[in-house]
Amino acid sequence: MRICSYVLANGTRSYGIVDGDLVRDVGETIRGQYPDLRAALASGVLSDVAEGASGSAAVPLDSLTLLPPITNPDKIICIGLNYMGHIKETGRDAPSHPSIFTRYPSSLVGHDQPMVRASVSTWFDFEGELAVIIGKAGRAIPAERAMSHVAGYTCFNDGTIRDFQRHTTQFWAGKNFDRSGSMGPWFVTADEFGNPADQSMVTRLNGEVMQSTSIADLAFDIPTLIAYLSTVCELLPGDIIATGTPSGVGMFREPKLFMKAGDRIEVEITGIGTLANAIVDES
């Protein structure tokens, strides 16, 4: 099942089931009980969401303004240096523990919405990633049970202002400029997506492949990440774990290659689809 969040023509935020190029809205009854996808996940009612949407009139997907699938996560946890190829291109040693930073919801836009290059920098880099959406709360989750806490997966672009990222040893400043990243276009439930290690990801800038990898190249796989993160804090339904980017980012190309106004960046993951965004300058 594929589920997206969006803004209806009347300005109401809603969510619905993706059926090819169409979307079936959950309707007022379901939305009245579970106003967003995070609430539906927390209540464990995705089957009710599908049933409620089944009787709705289908609308064209491209007629909706898409939002990040989870619009109000409690936590967006990002993992740095988590593909072996990316670790190699940075010249660093493989970490002994996951490298962690956070993003805020205000830093993300949905599919086909513009990502914004901040006026204070021209070092705006792309980072295609697979994001995990938590479906069941848990603390100190053993790795062998971790996947039972996963609701599904989506595409993620960890758009980064590289010079601000390097101001200190903490990545936060380069990762949280408003509307600098993206997520979507929908989330695919775990049963439909299958084993993440069997999937692959490609990032394209203006149609040219920048990054290409198997998800199996993760230094810390998803069960390991969930076990480690849930040792620190309780993971909640709707929490996002962005699992890291592979090699090929603009920062480590020669010459460096950064995004600019007029560019189009795409992150495509098999089993999910393509997250695409235009780049605009901050007004």
What does this protein look like?
The chain is of the alpha+beta class. The chain has 2 domains: 2-67, no CATH class; 76-281, Fumarylacetoacetase-like, C-terminal domain (Fumarylacetoacetate hydrolase, domain 2), CATH 3.90.850.10. The protein is built from 8 helices and 19 strands. Strands 1, 2, 3, 4, 5, 6, 7, 8, 11, 12, 14 and 17 form a 12-stranded mixed beta sheet that branches. A 5-stranded mixed beta sheet has the order 9-19-18-15-16, with no helix packed on it. A hairpin with a 2-residue loop joins β2 (13-19) and β3. The longest helix is centred in the last third of the chain and has 11 residues, at 222-232. GO terms for molecular function: hydrolase activity; isomerase activity; metal ion binding.
CATH C-level of the largest domain: Alpha Beta
Strand content: 25-35%
Following the backbone from N to C, one meets helices and strands in this order, namely EEEHHHEEEHEEEEEEEHHEHEEHEEE
Q: Which topology of the largest domain does CATH recognise?
A: Fumarylacetoacetate hydrolase, domain 2
Total beta-strand segments: 19
* Quaternary structure annotation: single chain
Total of helices:
8
Question: What is the structural class?
Answer: alpha+beta
Categorize the overall geometry.
globular
Keywords: Hydrolase, Metal-binding
Family: Belongs to the FAH family.
Domain Fumarylacetoacetase-like C-terminal: 75-280
Protein name: Fumarylacetoacetate hydrolase family protein
